[in-house]
Amino acid sequence: MEDEYFKIFDEDRNEIGIASRNDVHRLGYWHETFHCWFVTKHKGKDYIYLQLRSDTKQDYPNLFDITAAGHLTSDEKVQDGVREVKEELGIDVLFNDLVPLGIMEYCTIKENFIDKEFAHVFLYKSEHSLDEFILQTEEVSGMVLAEFKDFSDLWFGEKETIKIKGFELNKEGKRMMIDKYIGKDQFAPHQPSFYLGVIQKIEEEIY
Description:
The protein has helices spanning 21-27, 82-89, 148-155, 192-206; strands at 5-9, 15-20, 30-42, 45-53, 64-65, 68-71, 99-110, 113-125, 140-147, 162-169, 175-182.
């Protein structure tokens, strides 16, 4: 498989060139990503959709994460990021239907992996049921819902665990129901400040 290439930036967001995915994460170049958080309302309560990352993912396997997200390649614009939603979730979303939440930056470092992202973050107010998601199994192995207030309380330290409900695909591709409690340790290790920032921006749009 050919390596992907991304635009790279200095810390002031000035574009400085192009580098391969491997070099971006080996050398710690700032690069662009696309994040899309789905929320929905049911019986007067707001819910957030969380993807379960596939167990075959190189980074953060078997952890819960942003509804849909991915890197922007060197020839893509931010608007092209909606392809990630279609690819990962099988859901067609129009860029104009997304609510922009701004560009958020964060850095995660572990062993020989440095992830410095300028994330273009968006909100999508969804009316899709979990039955409508068709997952890209090499990327995503499940989809769940959590009450948004619970999600907020978890990251603001008001709760230790929150309840999630949804499904996970087993090795045969059959949907297995998920109904359990999870804590912060079962989420992709983005900086807590990143989660808090996203929560505050979503609150401004749904309350």
